[in-house]
Specification:
- The complex is a heterodimer of chains A (about 325) and B (about 100).
- Chain A has about 325 residues and is mainly α.
- Chain A is built from 14 helices and two strands, in the order αααααααααααββααα.
- Chain A has a two-stranded antiparallel ribbon.
- In chain A, β1 and β2 form a beta hairpin.
- Chain B is an alpha+beta fold.
- Chain B has a domain at about 5-70: Phenylacetic acid degradation B (Ubiquitin-like (UB roll), Roll), CATH 3.10.20.
- Chain B contains two helices and three strands, in the order ββαβα.
- Chain B has helices spanning about 35-45, 70-80, and strands at about 10-20, 25-30, 55-60.
- A three-stranded antiparallel sheet of chain B has the order 2-1-3.
- The radius of gyration of chain B is 22 Å and the shape is elongated.
- Chain B starts with 11 loop residues before the first strand and ends in a 19-residue tail after the last helix.
- The chains are: A mainly alpha (about 325), B alpha+beta (about 100).
- The interface of A and B includes residues 93 and 106 of A.
């Protein structure tokens, strides 16, 4: 069965009484659990969001994995390794949450490996220097934390619980990255240039992580009404900018946006226009590293086949022994 | 060697972890694993990377019997209809400051 291409249903036509009850429960702030009745659209939207999120965690290991062998000290190597390992765990938490909606993890991973699944556009950019490890932890994990802190209150219980666990762990990721950036920013002129260059390259893609502008985000209204999302893409992006600008200033780095200015009345940092054409190109698969990421993921999956086979053989031998 | 070896065809196990300090085991999530021993190891790697647990239970997911959300109303009725099981049901005379 291809669950991704079922016709769009009008939820009210599906079962008006149950839908009213469902929305009343959401109105009372209740969480929806796997065995509860839910509109098919709600289930589909969650499968879409959660699987994209899980894929992002998994693909997100690749840009950083690139630098583990070249970390400048043992301390940096240990912490980067631990961070990348966390991302694998986060992918597993969310795949496990997605399975409660009746999809199989192998089906989702199959879609990822076949190039049919979406994941966060940010991971299709290259990691050119060590400073990129700083920029990713600080900006990419920083943006993810803003998004996930809100998702920890999403209406679907298993997703919310996975997010709570992830948020607890990701604070270290952001600090790890910011420490790298602040160390470089306080270093030699060459190190300072390296830090600024990384910020220049990662700033705009980080803002794009929150997704299209509200006016171009067709799913937002329904997702907000069902409390899957709690805030719009633009609102979360605004929060991230407000948090991050002072952090850049504190370590003497410049945000690469000539239009950035503080609005004393709203207490917001107002930023320049985002290049949405670039965003949609990367989403479509035309980013700098889309093909490379998928190829690396496929290789990892194929090269891991012997581990899965060994685990199965081990389990089979054990059960044969205990049966004897 | 098996050609269709795929970790997610492995049985699903529910994972319960007990935090240090004497709290009860609590549901953490699930893992796929070919047997109980590997389920425990996968659960350790997935859910206890920061000293979150002093003990792990793994239980085959299909061994769990759960109450049905559709019957939740009548099923929990016997407990919900007895406010006198809560201390707030009882009046304490005004003069009593600490009880």
């Amino acid at each position: 069965m291809d669950r991704t291409r079922a016709p769009q249903q009008d939820p009210a036509a599906e079962n008006p009484e149950k839908l009213a009850e469902f929305e009343a429960r959401l109105g009372r702030g209740e969480t929806i659990e796997p065995k509860d009745w839910m509109p098919e659209r709600y289930r589909k939207q969650l499968v879409r969001m959660m699987s994209q999120h899980a894929h992002s965690e998994v693909v997100g290991m690749l840009p950083e994995g690139n630098w583990i062998t070249r970390a400048p000290s043992l301390r940096r190597k240990l912490t980067l390794l631990a961070k990348v390992q966390d991302e694998a765990g986060h992918g597993l938490y969310i795949y496990c949450g997605t399975e409660t909606l009746g999809v199989d993890r192998s089906e989702l991973i199959g879609q990822l490996l076949a190039g049919k699944a979406k994941y966060s556009s940010i991971f299709n950019y290259p990691t050119l220097t060590w400073a990129d490890m700083g920029a990713i932890g600080w900006l990419v994990d920083g943006a993810a934390i803003v998004n996930q802190t809100v998702l920890a209150k999403t209406s679907y219980g298993p997703y919310a619980r996975a997010m709570i666990r992830i948020c607890k762990e990701e604070n270290f990721h952001k600090r790890q990255g910011y420490e790298i950036m602040s160390t470089l920013a306080a270093g030699t002129p060459a190190q300072q240039r390296m830090a600024q260059d990384a910020l220049n390259r990662w700033w705009w893609p980080s803002l794009m992580m929150f997704g299209p502008s509200d006016k171009d985000s067709p799913n937002t209204g329904e997702l907000l009404r069902w409390r899957v999302k709690r805030f719009s893409n633009d609102e979360l992006r605004r929060r991230f900018v407000n948090l991050t600008v002072p952090q850049a200033k504190a370590i003497g780095l410049r945000i690469p946006d000539p239009d950035l200015k503080y609005n004393a009345a709203t207490k917001d940092w107002e930023f320049g226009a985002i290049d949405w054409e670039e965003f949609f190109q990367v989403i479509k698969g035309n980013g700098p590293c889309n093909a490379e990421r998928l190829a690396a993921r496929r290789d990892a999956h194929e090269q891991g086949a012997w581990v899965r086979a060994a685990a199965e053989a081990y389990a089979a031998r054990h059960s044969a022994r205990s049966a004897a | 060697m098996s050609e269709v070896s795929s970790s997610s065809q492995w049985p699903l196990w529910e994972v319960f972890t007990q935090p240090p300090g004497g709290g009860p085991h609590e549901h953490a999530g699930s893992v796929h694993a070919p047997d109980a021993e590997l389920a425990l190891q996968n659960a350790r790697d997935t859910y206890t990377r920061r000293g979150e647990a002093v003990s792990i239970w793994v239980v085959p997911s299909d061994a769990i019997v759960a109450s049905s959300p559709g019957d939740a109303g009548p099923f929990f009725e016997p407990g919900n209809e007895k406010p006198y099981r809560h201390p707030q049901f009882y009046k304490v005379p005004r003069g009593v400051k600490v009880f």
